Amino acid sequence: MTMITTASAPTARRSLRRILLMRAATLRRALNNWIASVIAHRERQAAIVALSELNDRELKDIGVYRGQVFQTLENAAIARTRHHRPCLNQTQLIGD
Questions:
Q1: Chain-wide mean pLDDT for the chain?
Q2: Are 31 and 23 in contact (CB under 8 A)?
Q3: DSSP structural state of residue 96
Q4: How sure is the predictor about 28, in pLDDT bands with cuts at 50, 70 and 90?
Q5: Can you give the residue range of the structural domain that contains 30?
């Protein structure tokens, strides 16, 4: 009976360690996503300011009309999000 108890202790520790690593990875991902969204928001604000300072002729030179500035930036943000979306699974995050 003692053998069963001592044999399961390392297994329980490994399971606990694995759970803690998975939770840490989830927390890290959530924090990274939040920081990325704050940075993206600030970049959009800066782009809006920069584009709003251009006159109509300069906007036409880059192929954007004044009424399309917000939609153009939104489309660019969506495309950037699709391009940079990570494709990691749980085993890659915890190093197994």
A1: 80
A2: no
A3: -
A4: very high
A5: 2-94
What tokens does 10 get? 């390392």
Cβ count near 1 (within 10 Å): 5
The single residue listed with the structure tokens 């749980």 is 90
Where on the phi/psi map is residue 95: left (φ > 0), alpha (ψ -120 to 50), or beta? left
For tokens 């584009």, name the residue.
51
> In sequence order, which residues have a C-beta less than 8 Å from that of residue 40 and are 6 or more positions away?
77, 80
Residue matched to tokens 């009976």: 1
Q: What is the pLDDT of residues 48-94, one digit of tens each?
A: 899 889 999 998 898 888 888 888 888 888 887 777 665 555 444 44
- Residue with structure tokens 């500035």? 69
